[in-house]
Design brief:
Chorismate Mutase Domain, subunit A, alpha/beta, about 60% helix, isomerase, Rossmann fold, globular, 15 helices, T-protein, 6-phosphogluconate dehydrogenase C-terminal fold, about 375 residues
Length: about 375
């Protein structure tokens, strides 16, 4: 039996090597595709093409008796790697006559990411930071685009210094709040102004499928090329009014980060053995624990600034605290029927999104489970 099993394993190993050969061929073809896209200014991510290709491969898999989700999982992972490698071919420069791109805070992680993207697109990029602010006037002299990407608590004070930009220079910021920085830019600069919020961190392998929110300030016709350049890099653009953006961020960022902070604080005070928790964890709890732990691997100043960036955030967190207390009274009363009633009420509010989120989370949990290496 052992000999028969080893023979089958040898055949599997041979097939795996063939798969590696095919993956190598595919990635080489992707490099060629990237060169063509770069030459013609085509985006690295085309949703219609991706959707059509996946649908076709799923149909072919079904005909062969292969689970359609299997080939989709494989291809999505391969495409993620492909998007990351396509950027190495560079990108077409949509505005070669722009002048200099000056990134204030370009030595930071997010500023560094965008410096790299502008460099890959052939723009002349200069970095302005606290250590070379004495060079600001010289750097701004030929600026066509000035990007402010500094900590939230410094953004408005930095913007206030930008009263000597060329009239036709585009001024934008990457702050995670938009209303106040946008107004500050409008006050200090009479040229084109746009508020931007990249909804991702600096560790993304590429901008494919990443969302960039843009809030119009002034002179939209003058910065359309910039939005198109983001699209070529693969980003998805989301136009929104600054106030609506900030209301959404109160829930998406401030409340979410604070609840993760509070849960992590609670865990640290309870002081459980994390290895034991991981051994007992289902994929969903491991994923939740990882998302909480991830917060504490990052810069506390950044998250403190995000949470405390507005009184609206604080008031939202206070309302959450009050509703947490209301829910806790159900436990104090051991009122299961009231719990079920509230549960159903929330379920009705989610509506069809509940099933959508169930499906999406099942895919995520399968991937999370695949990555776990259990001890034998």
């Amino acid at each position: 039996m052992a000999k028969e099993l080893q023979g089958l394993r040898d055949k599997i190993d041979s097939v795996d090597k063939q798969m590696l050969d095919l993956l190598e061929q595919r990635l080489k073809l992707v490099e060629e595709v990237g060169e063509v896209k770069s030459e013609h200014g085509l985006p690295i991510y085309v949703p219609e093409r991706e959707a059509a290709m996946l649908a076709s491969r799923r149909q072919e898999a079904q005909k062969r008796g292969i689970p359609p989700q299997l080939i989709e999982d494989i291809l999505r992972r391969v495409m993620r790697e492909s998007y990351a490698s396509e950027k190495d071919s560079g990108f077409k420069c949509l505005n070669p006559d722009l002048g200099d791109v000056v990134i204030i805070g370009g030595n930071g992680q997010l500023g560094g990411l965008f410096k790299k993207m502008f460099d890959l697109s052939g723009y002349k990029v200069k970095v302005l930071g606290s250590k070379n602010w004495h060079e600001a006037d010289a750097l701004f002299k030929n600026a066509g685009l000035v990007v402010v990407t500094v900590p939230i608590n410094k953004t408005e004070s930095v913007i206030a210094k930008l009263d000597n930009l060329p009239q036709d220079c585009i001024l934008c910021d990457f702050t995670s709040i938009k209303a106040k920085p946008l107004q500050a830019m409008l006050n200090v600069h009479q040229g084109p102004v746009v508020g931007l919020h990249p909804m991702f961190g600096p560790d993304v392998p590429s901008l494919a499928k990443q969302v960039i929110v843009h809030c119009d300030g002034r002179g939209a016709e003058h910065y359309q090329w910039l939005l198109q350049q983001f699209s070529i890099w693969g980003a998805s653009l989301c136009p929104m009014e600054a106030e609506h953006h900030d209301h959404g961020m109160t829930l998406i960022q401030a409340l979410r980060h604070f609840t993760s902070f509070a849960y992590g604080l609670h865990l640290s005070k309870e002081n459980p053995n994390i290895d034991t928790l991981l051994k007992l964890s289902s994929p969903i709890y491991r994923l939740e624990l990882a998302m909480v732990g991830r917060l504490f691997a990052q810069d506390p100043d950044l998250y403190g600034d995000i949470i405390l960036s507005s009184e609206e955030n604080v008031e939202m967190i206070k309302r959450f605290h009050a509703r947490f207390g209301e829910a806790l009274t159900l436990l104090d009363k051991h009122d299961k029927s009231a719990f079920i009633e509230q549960f159903n009420s929330v379920s009705d509010w989610f509506g069809d999104y509940s099933q959508q989120f169930m499906s999406e989370s099942q895919t995520l949990l399968k991937q999370a489970n695949d990555s776990i290496q259990r001890d034998s």
